Amino acid sequence: MSIFGLIEYADASAEVRAIYDDIMATRKTEWINNFWKSIAHDPVMLKRTWEDISRSWRRALDPLTRK
User: Which of 18, 54, 49 is nearest to 36 (CA)?
Assistant: First the structure.
């Protein structure tokens, strides 16, 4: 049982929507998975986590693995 609900795109602040948009553009998808929605209650943590993961994801994984 979670204490916080998930932040859906439609309910997100402008700051969170911008991060969601970047996630969707980078991952070439039209949806946000629950991992990101669950940490969106803290926009600073959401942004930091996305930047850290996307930076290492872009460098460390070969193109075939990324898909």
Answer: 49
- CA distances to 8, 14, 53 from 11, rounded to whole Å, are 5, 9, 24
- pTM to 2 decimal places: 0.80
Q: What is the pLDDT of residue 39?
A: 95
8 A C-beta contact, residue 17 and residue 51: no
pLDDT at 1 over 50: no
Rounded to the nearest angstrom, the gap between the alpha carbon of residue 53 and the centroid of all alpha carbons in its chain is 9
CA atoms of 32 and 7, how far apart (whole Å): 10
The per-residue pLDDT for 46 is: 97
Distance CA 49, CA 37 (A): 12
